[in-house]
Structure formats: C-alpha cells, structure tokens
Amino acid sequence: MRIGAFLIAFLTLRWGPTPSANQRSLLRSRRWIETPFYLVCIAAIATISCRSRESQTPAPTSSPVSAAPQIASKTTAGKRVIFIGLDGADWSLLDQYVSRGVMPTLAKLVSEGSSGTVKTISPPLSPLIWTTMMTGVSPLEHRILDFLRVNPTSQQREPITSDERKVPAVWNMATAGGKKVGALGYWATYPAESVNGLMVSDRLFTFLFSETSPPPGVVHPASMESWARDGLKRAQDDVGYEAVKAILPWLTEAEYAQAVAVTDPYAHPVSALRRILIETKVYDELGRDWYSRENPDLLLLYIQGTDSIGHVFAPYAPPRQSSVSEADYNHYKDVAERYFALIDQLLARYVALAQKTGSTIMLASDHGFLWGEGRPTTLSSAANTTAAKWHAENGVYLVWGPGIQPSAGHAGSGKVDQVAATLLALAGLPPARDIAGPPLPGTPATPSSTEPVDYRAVYTPAKPAAATSASSDSRVDEDTVAKLRALGYIGASEGKGRAFGSRTAGSLNNEGLLLKQHGKQKEAIDTFDTAISVDPNLASALWNLSDLLWARGESLDKSDALLVRAFANGLPEGTKYLIGRAIGYQRNGQVDRSISLLNQAAAAKPNEPDVWLFRGRYRVERGECAGAVDDFRQAARLTPNNAAVYASQGLAELCAGNSAAARTSFQKSLQLDPNQPKVREYLRGRGQ
Ligand SMILES: [Zn+2]
User: In this structure, which topology does domain 491-571 adopt according to CATH?
Assistant: First the structure.
C-alpha cells in the first residue's frame, strides 16, 4: 500500500484541486445546476431611425371590461405610472454607462429618483420571474413554471399560455380597480387577456419563437389586432441594413444579407442583433403610440433585449477574453454599449411623456447579469443548459417622479416579488391580500387606512386560445422545441418525453427546485420523480433528485444511479459532479462506493477519461494494480497528450511490479510536461 499512498499524494498534486477544494467548487457550482434552463432575453427597441411615425390606427374601441365595485371604490387618484421592465439589467453595467455618459437619461433618473436592487428567485427563468413580479406571488402559486406547456387539445408543445396562470396579475388588478392599463410583451400573456385597456402579448414577436405570423388572439381588444400587426410589419421593415450598420459600422450590405438569411437567428451575431432590435422596437413603438393617445393610468412595457444582448454579446465586451479572437472583439465589443445607448433614448421618450402627463416612471429587472467575471466566453456557449449561471442574483429597480425623494446611491433593497405591490401603491390601487409586500423602498407612502383587498375573488383566469388548425400547431411546436433546445433553454435530450396533463417535465423539475427551497423536501422528491417519469432522460431532474437524496443521506444507491444517468444524459459539468461524489466517498473511507459509482459511469459513458483516471487511482489504492494499468491505458487512449495520465500509468505499473514499463510511461509523461520534479526525481533515483 505504500505505493498506493504515494500515488494518491502524487495524483492529488498533479490533478490540481484537493478533494476539499473540489467539494467546495461543487457547492459553488450547485447554484447553476439548479437553474439548468436559462432564459435568454431578447426584445427590441431600437428606434435607430428615431423619426417617430404617426400611426394610422383607428381609434381603439377598447371593449369595456367592468371593474369590481368593491375594489374600485377603494382606489385613490394616484399618479399615472409608466413601468418599463428591463430584463437582466444590472447596476454594475448601467452605472458604468451612466458615469461614462452613455446613458444620460438613466443618469437623470438615478440622481433624481430612488433606486436599489431586487433579489431574484431560483431558478431564474424569465416566465417564472416576470410572472412573480406581476403577481407578487411565488411560481408555486401562480403556476407559470416553464417556457412551454402541452396544449390539451393538440398535445403539441407551445409557449406557455396565459390560461395556465392561477392568480391575477397587475393588469387584472388595475382592471378590477377601474384603472386603464396597457401591458406589452410580457411572458405567458397569450392569448391576450381581457383588460380595461390594451394587452399585446408576447406572441406578437419574440426572439425565441419565430412564427410565420402571430397567432390570432395576440391582442386585446381584438379591434386593435391589425394596429399591432401593422406595427410589427413597420418594425421589421425599419430594422434593415442601415439600422444594424448603425451598431456595426463595419458591416457591408453583402455580409448583412448573408447573416440574416440563416434560419436560426442565434447562429450569427448579426441576425441575433437584428431580431433583438425588432423586438425592442415593436413593443416600444406600440406602447408609446397607445400611451400618447389613450393616456392610461398604467403602462407596463417589457424589454427583453437588455438580457439577450448580454447572452449574445457579453462574450465580446471589453476587456477582451482570451477565447475571443481580435477580429471578433473588434467587430462586436461596442454592441452592448450602443444597444444600451438606444435604450437610453427609449427612456428619454418615456421621460418626456411622463413629464407631460405628471406620470411616475418605474424601472425594474428580474435578475442581474455577469458582465465581468463569469460572463459567457463565446456565442456558442449560449447553446448549452448552463447559461443561467450568467445571471446574477440582484436585479435593479428605480422609481422617479412627483413626490419621490432621491436616494443616496442604490440604497433600496427588496425582492422581485415586491414589484407588484409597488405598482399598486404607485397607481393608487388598494394593496392586495396574499401577495408579497411592502412596496419597495422609495415608494411614496399610501394612506395607512387602506385595507388589503382580495383581487383573487374577482379574478377569472384567461380562456384558452381558440383551437387553430393542426398543421399550424405542429409547425409552432416543432420550431419552438428546436429553438429552445438550440438556445439552451432545454437540454438536447429534452422535449421528447410525454406530458403530465398540460405540463412538461421541465415544469415539474422547476417546481421540485422551488419546493426544495421552501423546505418541502418530500414533495420535492415526489415532483422530481414525476418529472423523470415524464422524461426519463431529463438530466437536470435526474441530478436534482440525486443531489437531494444524497444530501438527506438516504437511498444512496438510487442517488448514485440517478447521478450516473444524469452524467450519461449530458448533464452540464456532469463529470465534475460525478468525480466529486467519488472523491467524497473515498475521503469518507468508502472507496468501494467510489469504485462502484465509477464502474457504472464507465459502463454508461465509456469515453470520459476522468472516469478511467479516478477508477485507476482507487484501484491502486485497493491493490488492484493490473486493473489500474488498464484504466490508465483507457484514459491515455482518450487523452493521448495528457502528461498526468502517463505518470499515473507509470505508478500503476510500478505497483504491478513492472518497472521497465513504468520507466517508459514516466519518460513519456516527462516529454509531454518536463516540469514534474517528482517524476524526474524518481527516474534519476533509478539512474535514468
Ligand atoms: Zn431575465
């Protein structure tokens, strides 16, 4: 066993992290593994060509949706409110732009308004978080738990719909209170809900779900649908070569034409940028046009591009990362800054509207974004399920307008679920019973006599969309699932499983994570089990259940088998998790468990060199020297230029009593990496 002890010390040296460091990194990385489907966000602003267009819209005949008298009687005058949701906005980036003069309007709002941070929820997925912001309750209550659902009639997957939501959102509460409200672009708002005002759902245009044309029912009232479709056509026509060239000055017309011709818009940064600009522009222009003409009490605008611009272009932002070529860096380094300059121009137009109408402005994001350390390294890294790790925990919020006192820096702090209560307070709506509060710091105090009201009692969930033809359904479905997979929202193996009612396996997996966070471990285990029965290859659910069982110290055999299945099904960084557990068992004196785990892993996925390396290591520890030599040979076959593999093989051969073969292996190792004093010392000791 002496050689075994030497080997262990040696290998630990050569393989970098000590077991405890490895375990620590496992703990650190657990957060993202729980958030396997990131949300890309893409929206559109642009107005690159800043000329405003007069809409030829017919006067909207907004079908009157009646208020609930018991709630309407408790509203106060309030201020008009313009809320702009900026997906993924993060002060670490915005403050830089403010100080460098890139965002002068935001600078004014920050210096005159009250701002702070809002803590997000996990998993940080857009449909879940924005629905939490707009309802004030956990996804466990509002029940928007995934990007997709399964249509109960057609059995096809589709972007998650408004009729899945079980509780009222701010637009329903405003309607109940008799206020006029417009909401544009929010997740899970199709079919458009009956509100007192306007709703343009996310299915009008979104980066993720490119449809040949928006489905019927994207707008409420229906009489406004052609107005919205015309707006989309205008935005698509406007964002052409010149608009994209304004952000990418080096772009030739031929390069532009080539880039936009690709079908997957994420495949090329230029086509991705164009879609971001269209999405930003269409909701901005429709929202502003409607606000100017209708003067509503509350406008809720959602901009996804502030997040998606990061997913696509943060890899290229300064300082240059070694993974980014000089050429790509020079092409794309200024894209984010130029896009946020456009966002600032967008804000300026709403500030002008707000000043004209005495409105309050509120901004908020659903989470932050890692623009510096930890940011994406390449565009293609958007296409894996680890992308949520780019999202940072703290989003932003800001309130500005009459009666709002400036804060010292971003002093306020709260949670994303307080956004709904804040909007109610700003708009003069009575507070809601059973939602998160209080309003975020900086919100002017409301009369303390106002009792919370029960908006749920007067809420009728949205009706499902009228069935459309089967052929158009299946086209959406195929496109949607392929795109979600390409963008990393769902893993490569996902989207093939059955459904659980209208729910996807991903939805169940997300619910399991939320239940676990709420301390409901038994329910979480059941829910992960259901997710796996719906989709047996769902790597994230396999891992989540494995990890939870392991943390509880129960069903370790089942836990290990689940981990191996997750590893074999492409769990991001699955090797690290697997090896981490093997190391944990070994350190705990359970080397047999380590080997059993690695045996299963080697059988399930034989092309992972680390599995052979570590099994060889533990077999030496058990004195199975010949078997260990075989393992290191397998590893060498898979990574022929890895000096550590040959050094290990040399040690195993020594252990097996074959000093000549050991010498050859050590020499090979030294050729690959001359800087190995222990190996050199050994050979010198043998007179080499
Ligand atoms: Zn987001």
Answer: 1.25.40
Residue 88 Cα to ligand 1 midpoint, Å, equals 5
Q: How far is the CA of 332 from the centre of ligand 1 (A)?
A: 22
Q: What spacing in Å lies between the alpha carbon of 166 and ligand 1's midpoint?
A: 21
Q: What is the CA(514)–ligand 1 centre distance, in A?
A: 17
Q: Minimal CA–CA distance to 241: which of 232, 233, 250? A: 250
The string of pLDDT tens digits covering residues 70-102 is 899 888 877 899 999 999 999 999 999 999 999
pLDDT of residue 102: 98
What is the whole-number distance in angstroms between the Cα of residue 125 and the centre of ligand 1? Answer: 6
Q: In the block, which residue shows the tokens 């199975």?
A: 624
> 130: CA distance to ligand 1 center in Å?
8
Tell me how far the alpha carbon of residue 371 lies from the centroid of ligand 1, in angstroms. 14
**Overall pTM surpassing 0.90 (yes/no):** no
List the beta bridge partners of residue 85: 302, 364
CA 93 to ligand 1 center in whole angstroms = 15
* pLDDT tens, residue by residue, 371-415: 877 776 665 443 334 456 678 899 999 999 999 999 999 999 999
**Rounded (5°) CA angle 211-215-218:** 115
Mean pLDDT of 559-585: 94
Residue 66: which residues within 8 A CB-CB, separation 6 or more? Answer: none
Q: So what's the pLDDT on residue 26?
A: 34
Give me the pLDDT at residue 495, please. Answer: 53
Give residue 305 CA to ligand 1 midpoint distance, Å. Answer: 10
From the CA of 197, how far away is ligand 1's center (Å)?
A: 26
Per CATH, the homologous superfamily of domain 1-20+575-589+606-688 is Tetratricopeptide repeat domain (1.25.40.10)
Three-class secondary structure of residue 364 per DSSP: strand
Residue 366 CA to ligand 1 centre (angstroms)? 5
Measured in Å, residue 577 CA sits from the centre of ligand 1 at 27
**DSSP state string for 65-77:** ----HHHHTT---
Distance 336 CA to ligand 1 centre (A): 16
Cβ pair 338, 61 in contact under 8 A: no
Q: Are 631 and 615 in contact (CB under 8 A)?
A: yes
3-state SS, residue 356 = helix
All CATH 1.25.40.10 domain ranges in the chain, comma separated: 1-20+575-589+606-688, 491-571
Q: How confident is the model at residue 534 (pLDDT cuts 50, 70, 90)?
A: very high
Distance from the alpha carbon of residue 386 to the mean position of ligand 1, in angstroms: 14
Compute, in angstroms, the gap from residue 40 CA to the centroid of ligand 1: 7
DSSP string, 539-562: HHHHHHHHHHHHHTT--HHHHHHH
Smallest CA-to-CA distance from 500 within 535, 525, 469 is with: 535
Among 377, 359, 263, which residue's Cα sits nearest to residue 323? 377
**What is the Å distance from ligand 1's center to 39 Cα?**
6
- The answer, yes or no, to whether residue 16 has pLDDT greater than 50, is no
Are residues 351 and 108 in contact, defined by beta-carbon separation less than 8 angstroms?
yes
- CATH code: domain 69-223+271-458 is 3.40.720.10
Rounded distance from Cα 506 to ligand 1 centre (Å): 17
pLDDT value of position 346: 98
Structure tokens at 606: 């034989």
pLDDT > 90 in the chain, percent: 65
- Return the amino acid letter for 498: R
What is the structure's pLDDT at 376? 67
- Ligand 1 centroid–CA 53 distance in Å is 30
User: Distance (Å, rounded) from C-alpha 197 to C-alpha 265?
Assistant: 33
- Residue 85 Cα to ligand 1 midpoint, Å, equals 10
The least confident of 11-20, 483-492, 586-595 is 11-20
The predicted pLDDT at position 21 comes to 33
